[in-house]
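hey so u asked for the seq, here:
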Amino acid sequence: MSNLQLPVATLGTPRIGLKRDLKFALESYWAGKTDQTALLQTAAELRAANWARQKARGVDIIPSNDFSLYDQMLDTSFMVGAIPAIYGAKADLGTYFAMARGSQKSHTETCEHGHVHHHGHGVPAQEMTKWFDTNYHYMVPEFTRDQTFHLTSFKPLDEFLEAKRQGYHTRPVLVGPVTFLKLGKSTDEGFDPLSLIDRLAPVYVDILTRLRDAGADWVQVDEPVLALDGEPAITAALKVAYATFAEQVPGLKIIVASYFGGLEENLDTAVGLPVAGLHIDLVRKPQQLNPVLDRAPEGLVLSLGVIDGRNIWRADLAAIVDTLEPVIAAHGKDRFQIAPSCSLLHVPIDLDLEDALDADVRSWLAFSVQKMSELVTVAGALRGGYEDSVSSLALLDDSTQAAAARRTSAKIHNKAVAARLAAVTAADGQRKSAFAARARVQRAQFALPAFPTTTIGSFPQTAEVRKARSAHARGELSAEGYEAFLKAETARAVAWQEEIGLDVLVHGEFERNDMVQYFGEQLSGFAFTKHGWVQSYGSRYVRPPVLFGDVSRPKPMTVQWWWFAQSLTGKPVKGMLTGPVTILNWSFVRDDQPRSESCRQIALAIRDEVADLEAAGCRMIQIDEAALREGLPLRHRDWQTYLDWAVESFRLCASGVADETQIHTHMCYSEFNAIMDAIAAMDADVISIETSRSKMELLDVFTSKKYPNEIGPGVYDIHSPRVPEVTEMTGLMSLARQRLDDTQLWVNPDCGLKTRKWEEVKPALVNMVAAAKALREDA
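ran it, structure tokens below
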């Protein structure tokens, strides 16, 4: 670590590359177009660019091992040898990606009806879920009661030495052992993975010792579990792990990083650990600074997370300096580091790439590179004081002016939106009849077979689709030509769905770039970047909309495409919308008003779209709330407040329809147990959920709570390239039938199919339809 007073640290940076280099390298490797050497060369170039970028911006404490080919939790599973037996004993890149994506060994055969059925004998991917309350996904570690650990990967050491050879003395980053175990799972009933801490700690001792011996003086160990509700098991595991490190790795300084919230009841545990430093999140929990200072022992270095690592709004730097200046004066500059609230993984790389944003909106933003400059500016002002730093004064003044301009901008506030929201009543969130009455009407109207089949909405966005979209955006393909192309794609998709026997169809969403961006681009109050990519998982990147102002819907957004698709078939075609909570949670949201208010504004805009779809004749409308659960606050005591306004927002957009109109919703990666009452309160006629990786375990709570509405448990894991067999799908549905009544069950994939290839999707859906038919014969 630098001997400079008030050093600047970043905790971690985006790893995807300025031009999404990692995505293209991975996908080329997976497709067999390039080899492992080329992939690893690209990875090395990205790491070198990240270190150079931070050095050039004035960052003093540069991290290493914050890079990953897929996910840092998967890296940790690999490092400690937590590789489930089904993936084999070979710890190579093939095994690594099999854990991430599954693998496929297969053969095909043609049935008597002429359909090709794909039979797979590969391995499924590990379960994937959201990293705390972010939109980043991690691979869930798997443990057994007899789990053993051993150092299998030397990645943290290798990347430290790699940086060292390039002239960078870095601070290696590790996922903390307690966080790693807490976020893992075990299929052994009644077994708590945290009880494995005594077996896991020695592996961490091994890698920490190797880092120390290679010249590392500090290591950052991330323990965001400290932002969760306090649990005796977490506390005990933390004490065991860090006491072991202190005793067995003398001479190495460890800084424990907490983030995404305050320490609260974990405060005494955190400051009592035998470590050299502690990072705290002062964006999510600014009021924790004084309690931490009061309890922290002398000599404990505090890393102050004062710049938001989760959002893209420019900070008011003068306000930060005003807050920290008396603290620094009272406790000394040697006691502190200046840092973002968490890793900068969650924000885009560089605002300077954006040349088409509205000038005012652009002036309110800061991406990863700009946040580094903000950190350096704050540290510079605090090191020398206002009077001694003319450049810092100018930067601070500019920051203050930008914050003031944003607060008073006419682009932010819309009186008509505020008036409409104020006029909302409780009746606006109520369906006309209870579900039982609606279900009778809907079943008579649609006359669907048992175990009706459908998909979640999107179909593969092929290279041809992306090429046409890009050509249209560049002006090389006319609006008429682009529309004709999209209609042809839609018509082919509708015809193919009819051909294989799906019961409820979708139009395929070929006109949509992203399930949130597509709507945000048609709503007021949103802005969009060209290069504002952030990682969702693996090679899946998204460009979150920037929700900067009040939201309204100027005109219909989806009716034309639904009507065209429905005109091609006599089967029902679902209208496809993204729900208000998901649009909110998957956007960079304004921070000048409560999130609940922004969500209700979006709900009213989506309500208008629902009404227009129904008026056009649409009788099945899916309003996806894939992100409802991930918006839950980390502390349980705050859940109900969030759930109240989230459910209210969904009902507000979905309830203004007749009983004949069937409302569907879809949810991803949701552990429903603790929020089942809220799910039921949404009162969707049909809910589809991801269950294939969890082997239908998520349905247990629907059973115990006697959930009355209809459910489509996913039988096809769309996040893996493997194609499930018919017997695999019927096996999953058999598990579902043990938990729910046959009349409740639909058959569908886990999620939308946009990111998959047609050669994977077609055999999988053919198998899915065959599985549904087999279920009907068995019913």
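The longest helix spans residues 36-57. The chain is about 40% helix and 10% strand.
lmk if thats what u needed
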